[in-house]
Amino acid sequence: MSYEVLARKWRPRSFPELVGQDHVGRALVNALDTDRLHHAYLFAGTRGVGKTTIARILAKSLNCERHGVSSEPCGECGACQEVDAGRFVDLIEVDALARQAADLEPVLGELLALLHQLALAQTVPGALDESIGDADRVRALAERIDPADVQLYYQIGTLGRRDLGWAPDPRTGLEMTLLRMLAFRPAGASDVQAPGAGSTGGGLDAGADKAAEGGGAASA
User: Fold this and answer.
1) How far apart, in whole angstroms, are the C-alpha atoms of residue 37 and residue 218?
2) 84 to each of 26, 76, 94, 201, how far by Cα in Å?
3) How far is the C-alpha of 166 from the C-alpha of 179, rounded, in Å?
4) What is the pLDDT of residues 63-115, one digit of tens each?
5) How many domains does the chain contain in total?
6) Domain with 64 in it
7) Residue 193: inside a domain, yes or no?
8) Which of 51-78 are b and which e, b meaning 16 or more Cβ less than 10 Å from the residue's Cβ?
9) Main-chain phi, psi angles of 108, to 5 degrees
C-alpha cells in the first residue's frame, strides 16, 4: 500500500469534520441549505488552515450524485470520491502554491484561459487548444454539460490579504466575479479549540458575519 501524507489521509471530508473553522462552515452550510450561494468565494490564510479542504467540501456539496446540491454530500458516490481524490472532471484546480507563484496575475490569466477554452469547446469542438494542460478534462466537461445550463463557481485561496489583479480579458465575467466575491479568513492554529470547548476566535471578513446568519448571500 502506497504511503499517504497524514495531512491528506485525515483531511476533513465534510463540514461537520472541520475543526476550528466553524464560522466558515456555518456560512457555507446556510448558503447551501437556503439555496443562496454566492457568485464566488475567497478563502485567505496561511498554509494548512484549510483553504483547499473547504473548497473541496463545497465542490462535493455542489456535485453530489445522491443528494444533489446539499450541505451533506454523501461522500460515497463517484463525484464525491473523485473530488476527494483530486480528479473530478467538473473541478479544475489551478495550484499556484505548488509552482511557488509569487504573483496572482498569471494564475488568474490561466483560470480565464481555461474558462474560455471550455466555452470554445462547447461552441466549436474542434477548436480546443491542445497545448493547455487540462485539454482532456475541458473536453470531457464540455461534452457532459449543456451550455445553457452552465453554472460556474469560483473558489480562490490566497496566503494573505492582498489585492487580486483584474483579469486582462472581461469576456468570461471574471472581473465582475471578483467585484462580488465573498471573502473568508479561516481561523489559524492559535484560534482552534478542541471540539466542544466553545467558539473559536476566528472571524469572517467584511460582510461574512451576515452571510453566516443569512445564508451566505452578503454582497461585496
Assistant:
1) 10
2) 21, 10, 16, 28
3) 9
4) 999 999 999 999 999 999 999 988 887 787 766 555 555 555 666 666 667 66
5) 1
6) 18-188
7) no
8) bbbbbbbbbbbbbbeeeeeebbbebebe
9) -65, -35
Cα–Cα distance, 198 to 8 (Å, whole number)? 26
Residue 61 in grid coordinates: 456539496
Provide the strand spans (E) within the chain.
Answer: 40-44, 154-158, 182-184
Task: Read off the DSSP letter of residue 20.
Answer: S
47, 141, 219 from 77: Cα distances, Å: 29, 18, 33
17: which 3 cell numbers? 469534520
* Assigned domain for 89 exists: yes
Rounded distance, CA 199 to CA 177, Å?
Answer: 31
Kindly state the helix (H) or strand (E) to which residue 104 belongs, with its residue range: helix 104-123
Q: Which helix (H) or strand (E) holds 106?
A: helix 104-123
Q: Residue 126 sits in a domain of what CATH number?
A: 3.40.50.300
164 belongs to a structural domain: yes
* Cell numbers representing residue 27 in the block: 456560512
What pLDDT, on the 0 to 100 scale, is given for residue 174?
52
Confidence (pLDDT) at 51: 86
Relative to beta strand 154-158, strand 182-184 is unpaired
Q: Is residue 194 part of a domain?
A: no
Residue 10 in grid coordinates = 485525515
